[in-house]
Design brief:
Blueprint lengths: L22 E3 L6 E13 L4 H9 L9 E6 L3 H17 L6 E8 L5 E7 L2 E3 L11 E2 H8 L11 E6 L4 E2 L11 E2 H13 L5 E4 L2 E4 L10 E3 L16 H7 L4 E3 L2 H5 L7 E2 L31 E7 L5 H12 L2 E4 L12 E9 L9 E6 L5 E4 L1 E4 L2 E6 L6 E10 L6 E4 L13 E5 L7 E3 L5 E3 L5 E8 L4 E10 L2 E7 L1 E2 L5 E6 L11 E10 L6 E4 L5 E6 L8 E3 L9 E4 L1 E4 L8 E4 L7 E7 L3 E2 L5 E10 L17 E7 L7 E2 L10 H9 L1 E2 L2 E2 L9 E6 L9 E10 L7 E11 L2 H8 L4 E3 L6 E8 L3 E9 L5 E9 L2 E8 L6 E9 L2 E9 L2
Parallel strand pairs: 2-16, 3-4, 4-8, 9-10, 27-35
Antiparallel strand pairs: 1-6, 2-5, 5-8, 6-7, 11-12, 13-14, 14-15, 17-18, 18-22, 19-20, 19-23, 21-22, 23-24, 23-25, 26-28, 28-32, 29-30, 29-33, 31-32, 33-34, 33-35, 36-49, 37-40, 38-39, 39-49, 40-48, 41-48, 42-47, 42-49, 43-44, 43-48, 45-46, 50-51, 51-54, 52-53, 52-55, 55-56
Helix pairs in contact: 2-4
Protein name: T9SS type A sorting domain-containing protein
Keywords: Signal
InterPro entries: MetalloPept_cat_dom_sf, Secre_tail
């Protein structure tokens, strides 16, 4: 199964003195798995009291969660069962934000009933129960009271097997031999709501996501040592792996212990790590079929109805934040003025706030804490005063509140951070400011002339506030009036436009620019991006269409390609420039490089060809392009409607396409990521027929696209010798039908050359040449129309890289093979 790895992807960092925003971290595709057991359990759990009360009265609680599901492939009876599970969860959860679920009915792996997970995770959220951890988006939205990932985007992605023998009833009377769909949906939604540890295991080493998931921060071994503790169990270590397979992992929650006889709930941690099951379920042997807490164990038997999450799971959820008292506060900024400071906070509780528990604690220069009971100013808002500390002091503070229902005390900042025992505090400085603004901006490398004026986005913050933000720029070396950037609302975003008010901007123009931000201090501090020099922005447009195109990429001019995440470069290990993606590429991203020369499709066979190295994450064995298990891929696409829609010239592919690529990917691993580096000897030719997707006369734009999901990552993609040509003869037919495929490659002696012939062919030569171009093997080939496999005997050749060609005279198509005995 795919590794669970959450790598930070900055969306908007919290910055002093501005409105609270959040940091989003990538999330895996659904990876927690529920397996079906063939045994008939003949058990049925009672429905939750909250659900029964809702059914009895016909009324929903005003604070009850609302779950909306988008169904793909479900029959009406399957959808009705799903909705019953949804209504159960709605009766048990409190959230002011709608929870969106994408549910797909599709064939899954052998024995898999369903799989699910959150579509995004967030940390640094306002009102968090713990700091330094990531929350699944549905829980993060509940805690913050905000829609974080877009109202039309799913918070949970879930898939359910379309091939199981399901029971669709909602009464819990599951007959022998059938699996209860309501129970499986209830289980999988539980994972998407937060019952997921985000751990992995490889080569004996155990790992958890960075930042750790809120669930994982409660995990302990039998002796009570937290597993998310680098000092005891380093991340990605065999010491942690031993804990994951110890059979003794527990969830240390005071709320859950209170409904479990004072004992920590036991987590599923079998001696053989099961990806998708281990650490993210309750222990099967502890909570057996018929136990009220059996829903979140790793497998579900036939004739087993569990329409109740159980008190342990519900209290674990409450501990993580599904029952919460959120303290929402905007941190006070640094200031150059000494005065009293008013601290405002909004306290939102799922219960009732303990009278007198809302307090402000502050200290001057790490001195003793002063306690201030905050007063209600109406509704949910409270206020406290920090007395004037005078100039040249640092003030630190935090806010606390408690609820009557759980007896817990909550703090802002959150009181817990894994591996840190000191209590977190906000702080601000009073006195002359010497801190420069913090500025973030991704340089723009190109803009199409027909898209002008073009908006530029800059993120800027400062401890005393931003005074001026602007863009200084020149066009073809001639200075233009600086662009003044304006703040968007209360966010940290500043925008402006590259415009034509001082003169036209046309294709071929080169803009040099830098961002300059000054703060609001009495003696302003300044930050410029870049720190030296300028960013280069090319104004481009598409060129006249051509029937043929050739570019070996060795000449820096003309500018025929534009995009993000790619450049023409010559990294170490390569003898000449080529198109290279970022090395290594980032998780959860899409990189695109467009060709500015459109191609007019001809009536004769027309082939796009290039040499390439593809070191991107391979999907699961047997996975098909377009399915979640295909993971990362590269694809060549064309558009005949000026880029409105794009069509793959052929299915996307990954490192599995060539055995030598896959071997390179697997040759060097770290935390399930490949650290292998591409080299020139991995270049392999690839051809695509344009007529397979487009008709003669179509004017087609072409682009290269690398897609990366949120899991493992690696070196990326390199492309050289890009050619579009009209070809004739056998080689043309072979190129138009996909070229040559040689396997196995590397070869230990005997390989097969696979090709598809449009019509019967005879008198062709199959040649093998060494690195000096010398022919070391020759055989005559005749073939019928259709796909054929040609044996290629390489057993007498020394180890090395060889070229294999098929054709006659100049009508030849080639590929490469590595002989390794």
């Amino acid at each position: 199964m795919k590794k669970l790895l959450l790598l930070p992807a900055l969306v908007a960092a919290w910055l002093p003195g501005q409105a609270q925003t959040f940091v989003k971290v990538s999330a895996p595709s659904p990876t927690t798995v529920c397996y079906g057991r063939a045994e008939d359990m003949h058990t049925k759990l009672e429905l939750p009291a909250a659900y029964l009360e809702q059914q009895r009265t016909g009324r929903r609680r005003s604070t009850a969660a609302n779950i909306e599901v988008t169904y793909t492939g479900f029959s009406p009876e399957a959808q009705a069962a799903f909705q019953h599970a949804v209504e159960i969860w709605e009766s048990l959860l409190v959230s002011p934000v709608t929870i969106h679920v994408q549910a797909t009915w599709t064939p899954l792996g052998t024995g898999v009933l369903g799989s699910a997970g959150a579509t995004a995770y967030y940390n640094d959220i306002s009102g968090a129960t713990r700091s330094g951890v990531s929350y699944p988006v549905a829980l993060a939205e509940k805690i913050t009271g905000q829609e974080l990932n877009g109202a039309n985007l799913p918070d949970i992605n879930a898939r359910f097997s379309s091939t199981f023998n399901w029971y669709y009833g909602t009464d819990g009377n599951v007959p022998a031999g059938k699996h209860d769909l309501v129970s499986v949906v209830l289980h999988e939604l539980g994972h998407g709501l937060g019952f997921i540890a985000s751990t992995s295991y490889s080569g004996g080493a155990g790992s958890y996501s960075i930042p750790p998931s809120i669930f994982s921060t409660y995990l302990e071994n039998q002796a009570g040592s937290p597993l998310v503790n680098n000092k005891v169990f380093p991340n990605a270590s065999t010491a942690l792996g031993a804990q994951f397979t110890s059979g003794n992992v527990y969830f240390n929650s005071n709320l859950a212990k209170a409904v479990n006889g004072g004992q920590r709930p036991r987590i599923y941690a079998p001696a053989t790590y099961s990806s998708g099951s281990s650490i993210s379920h309750l222990n099967e042997a502890t909570y057996t079929a018929g136990d009220i807490n059996s829903l979140m164990t790793p497998s579900i038997g036939s004739a087993e109805a569990m329409h109740n999450p159980g008190p342990i799971t519900l209290r674990m959820f409450d501990e993580m934040g599904w029952f919460n008292t959120a303290i929402r506060h905007t941190k006070l900024p640094d200031t150059e003025t000494a005065q009293n400071y008013t601290v405002n906070a909004s306290i939102i509780s799922d219960g009732t706030i303990t009278p007198g528990s809302v307090k402000l604690f502050y200290a001057i220069d790490n001195g003793p804490l002063t306690t201030v009971v905050m007063t209600s100013t109406g509704g949910t808002t409270y206020q406290g005063i920090i007395q004037n500390p005078g100039l040249n002091h640092t003030v630190s503070y935090y806010i606390a509140a408690a609820d009557n229902e759980t007896g817990r005390t909550y703090t802002a900042p959150a009181a817990f951070q894994p591996n840190v025992s000191t209590l977190a505090r906000y702080s601000f400085v009073v006195g002359p400011d010497a801190t420069a603004p913090v500025v973030s901006h991704k340089p723009i490398t190109y803009v199409f002339a027909d898209k002008l004026p073009y908006q530029i986005l800059v993120q800027a913050t400062d401890n005393v506030g931003v005074g001026v933000a602007q863009v200084e720029w020149t066009v073809n070396g001639t200075p233009r009036t600086p662009i003044q950037l304006t703040r968007q609302g209360t966010s940290n975003n500043f925008v402006g436009t590259f415009n034509t008010s001082a003169g036209p901007l046309v294709a071929g123009d080169v803009i040099n620019y830098r961002v300059v931000v000054r703060d609001a201090a009495a003696n302003a501090n300044q930050t410029a991006l870049p720190g030296s020099g300028t960013s280069v922005l090319n104004v481009v447009s598409f060129k006249p269409a051509q029937a043929a195109y050739s570019n070996n990429l060795n000449n820096p001019a003309p500018l025929d390609f534009v995009g993000e995440g790619f450049s023409v470069a010559q990294p170490t290990g390569f003898s000449n420039p080529a198109i290279h993606s970022d090395h290594a590429y980032s998780n959860d991203t899409t990189l695109i490089y467009q060709m500015l020369v459109p191609i007019t499709v001809q009536s004769s066979p027309q082939v796009l060809s290039f040499d390439e190295v593809v070191l991107v994450e391979p999907g699961e064995p047997g996975s098909v392009f377009g399915t979640p298990d295909f993971y990362d891929y590269v694809v060549v696409e064309g558009s005949k409607d000026n880029g409105a829609t794009w069509v793959p010239l052929a299915d996307g592919y990954d490192s599995r396409l060539r055995p030598n690529w896959l071997a390179a990917w697997n040759s060097s691993q770290a935390n399930s990521n490949s650290t292998a580096v591409g080299t020139a000897d991995l270049f392999t030719p690839h051809s695509f027929g344009l007529q397979q997707k487009f008709a003669p006369g179509d004017v087609v734009r072409l682009r290269f696209r690398l897609f990366a999901d949120p899991g493992s990552f690696g070196w990326g993609w390199a492309i050289d010798n890009v050619n579009v040509q009209v070809v004739t003869g056998v080689a043309a037919d072979l190129k138009a039908t996909g070229g040559l495929s040689l396997y196995p490659n590397p070869s230990t002696g005997l390989s097969h050359l696979r090709a598809t012939f449009v019509k019967p062919a005879s008198g062709l030569e199959l040649l093998v040449r060494n690195s000096l171009g010398q022919v070391v093997s020759r055989q005559i080939v005749s073939a019928a129309a259709g796909q054929v496999d040609l044996p290629v005997d390489l057993s007498k050749l020394a180890n090395g890289l060889y070229q294999v060609s098929l054709g006659s005279a100049a009508d030849v198509i080639s590929t490469k093979v590595l002989v390794q005995k």
